[in-house]
UniProtKB/TrEMBL annotation:
Region span, Disordered: 1-74, 149-205
Protein's recorded name: Peptidase MA-like domain-containing protein
Biased composition (Low complexity): 48-61, 149-173
Gly residues compositional bias, start-end: 191-200
Residues that span the membrane, as ranges: 244-270
Phosphoprotein found in the keyword field: no
Annotated source species: Catellatospora methionotrophica
Top-level taxon: Bacteria
Length: 661
């Protein structure tokens, strides 16, 4: 239960009809006190924690859906336009390496300028008389290859009939080797230019006997360049590794572009498969197919419709959000419209709506299936713990699409959520979202300011890594108080923290009992439940004193013990013969209101003493080890505080007695 936070500086006077301390047993500032013994003060564990948890998780979570069709293989790399995220990239087929351009004819230069220049040129003399018949003209070596020297002791190039080839007749120039390569040396020291000492020597070109003019080196009349036409054995091409590497690089770029294009096209399809939906073009397995196959396909149709709704909700497109509703269901349109507008008012930034396995139902107008949805909104931030808002739905299957024909929020705790059944106005801060009906819109500024301050206190008591993304606070009038979350805790309660899923708690404040002097204390108390109790825990009834003691300690927020508003009830219980046991369990329904308030107070003072002696950080660690990890109080005290719990409990009891003496 929340604490009482009497704060005269708040500026709002108490209502005229507030009950006196004699009526409540703890004073008018205790909004959770009961005047009748049959009424139980309600807080996070009432009517029982087991009922709360069972209500929040009564239905099994939906099964993971497997793809309803085999995944297609990758298409062959295309040639031509390839779509890339809305753009087109033209992919050309790989081309062969560039062919070498034919060598240009060499130009002539005087040999005297440089020996290298002479070696790179071919001098062709004017036409000369042909040698006698029987002496075939020598064939020039293939273009581009140097002429190798002859073996030692042999002429450089033998011709038929044993005519020597070394040397040329006096006065006749010797042709340079073809292809621009330097000639290998020859006997006699003849240079390329025909004189001795000219640098690189040229081999004899023709094997004509002495006295005959040399035949042109190319063996072609008319002085054509030696490389035209090619003669001799086939030319062995040079290995051009640079060009080969360039071709490989081009091919790799093309392949990457093709694969990237395929991925861009295929990724949305694969994502829809793994999200449990399927593209609209997936054919139906038919009504006579096995039930499991038909059911999986129906679930995929419903999942596709829910995916469209989610996108529309987050984009703020109300028309698209309602487009999945069957036109013959106007009441569903009204409910969906209310839900859309309320979620948008609360700054929805993330949304999941998970369907259970659908069940076929007999109905007119085509095939129809029912399924339960579990919706989870995230406010302001795109990620958060699940919320477990449940709704029963019925869908009509037509033209391979699912159309919503019925939608009814479940009326079992913790549903319906306020945004499912009420038009809401809301505001958001750095840590909280506050929402109410339009009738109480004027309360939002004060609510948000106080909630933001209380959230900073509550954050101190969350387990590391489990701080809520946003605290959600609803402000309810009398009608909403009895209807929202199917809770109806009674008219003497100011606020409750409700467990809407294992990891998530939300608050509801009652307009009739939330006065300015208690607002901040109620928020600190209940938000501390939301922060400290997130996650699974056991034995919530026996751990009641830890749950409520920590929340009341947070509600005090460092104020002196003498200002603790539960002291009168604590004093009354101590004087009535309290035995010093601080480990209170959840009070039974017939417990008097002042006794319940006193037990809250003793638990709060116990937490205060532990924090004063060991520090707040140790207190929070002890709380989570016992509540969430299942460590016994005795083991937790020894592990965290380094002392025996029995002795420590006696210290706490002495502190309580001293506080009320």
């Amino acid at each position: 239960m929340p604490p009482e936070d009497e704060n005269p500086s708040a500026g709002w006077p108490p209502p005229a009809d507030r009950r006196s301390p004699d009526e409540t047993g703890t004073g008018a500032v205790d909004p959770w006190a009961r005047s009748a013994p049959e009424l139980l003060p309600l807080d996070d564990e009432d009517p029982t924690p087991a009922a709360v948890i069972a209500a929040a998780h009564s239905a099994a979570p939906p099964d993971d859906e497997q793809p309803t069709a085999p995944l297609a293989g990758y298409a062959q790399a295309p040639v031509g336009p390839v779509p890339l995220g809305g753009l087109e990239a033209y992919v050309e087929p790989p081309t062969a390496p560039f062919a070498a351009s034919p060598a240009e004819p060499p130009t002539l230069a005087p040999a005297a300028f440089a020996p290298q220049a002479a070696a790179d040129l071919t001098f062709v003399p004017p036409p000369a008389p042909m040698p006698p018949s029987g002496y075939p003209p020598p064939v020039a070596p293939p273009s581009g290859y140097p002429v190798s020297a002859a073996p030692a002791g042999h002429p450089a190039s033998a011709s038929p009939a044993g005519y020597p080839t070394s040397g040329s007749p006096g006065g006749y120039p010797v042709s340079a080797t073809p292809g621009g390569y330097p000639a290998s040396p020859t006997p006699g020291g003849f240079s390329v230019s025909g004189g001795p000492g000219g640098g690189f020597a040229a081999p004899p070109v023709s094997g004509t006997p002495g006295g005959y003019p040399p035949y042109p080196a190319s063996g072609v009349p008319g002085g054509h360049p030696v490389a035209w036409p090619p003669s001799g054995p086939p030319v062995r091409p040079r290995r051009r590794w640079g060009r080969l590497l360039a071709v490989v690089a081009v091919v790799m770029v093309v392949v990457c572009l093709v694969v990237g294009g395929v991925a861009v096209v295929a990724f949305p399809w694969l994502k829809e498969r793994f999200d449990g939906t399927a593209p609209s073009g997936v054919p139906s397995p038919g009504p006579n197919a096995p039930f499991a196959a038909r059911q999986a396909w129906i679930k995929s149709r419903i999942g596709l419709a829910l995916t469209e709704q989610r996108r529309a909700l987050l984009a703020g497109d109300e028309q698209a959000y309602l487009a999945v509703v069957d036109s013959t269901a106007p009441q569903v349109l009204d409910g969906m419209r209310t839900q859309f507008r309320s979620l948008r008012a609360m700054r929805v930034a993330g949304w999941t709506d998970e369907p259970s396995n659908p069940t076929a139902v007999a109905a007119e107008g085509g095939e129809q299936w029912t399924t339960e949805l579990r919706g989870s909104p995230c406010f302001v931030t795109s990620t958060c713990a699940k919320a477990g808002a449940r709704a029963q739905t019925r869908w009509r299957i037509h033209d391979d699409r699912a159309w919503l024909v019925e939608w009814t929020p479940v009326t079992a705790q913790p549903s319906p959520h306020p945004w499912q059944v009420a038009e809401l106005v809301a505001d958001a801060g750095e840590r909280t979202v506050v929402a109410t009906t339009p009738a109480y819109a004027g309360e939002l500024p004060v609510l948000l300011a106080e909630a933001e301050k209380a959230a900073k206190v509550a954050d101190r008591f969350a387990r590391a890594g489990a701080t809520p993304s946003r605290y959600v606070v609803y402000y309810a009038g009398p009608d909403e108080w009895r209807r929202w979350f199917t809770w109806n805790p009674g008219d003497t309660v100011s606020g409750v923290a409700l467990r809407v899923s294992v990891e998530r708690w939300e608050l509801m404040l009652y307009e009739d009992n939330i006065t300015p002097e208690v607002l901040s204390g109620v928020l600190r108390h209940e938000l501390t439940h939301a922060s400290s109790l997130a996650g699974p825990f056991k034995d919530s009834d026996t751990m009641w004193w830890l749950h409520e003691g920590l929340a009341d300690y947070a509600g005090m927020n460092g104020r002196p013990v003498r200002d603790y508003l539960r002291l009168p009830a604590i004093k009354r219980l101590v004087e009535s013969g309290w035995d010093g046991d601080v480990e209170f369990a959840d009070p039974p329904p017939n417990t008097a209101g002042w006794v319940v308030s006193a037990r809250y107070g003793i638990s709060g003072l116990t937490m205060t003493h532990l924090a004063d002696r060991f520090g707040e950080a140790k207190l929070v660690e002890f709380f989570h080890r016992v509540v969430h990890d299942g460590v016994t109080v005795q083991d937790g005290a020894q592990e965290i505080f380094g002392t025996d719990w029995a002795a420590l409990e006696r210290e706490c009891a002495d502190f309580v007695r001293h506080s009320v003496a």
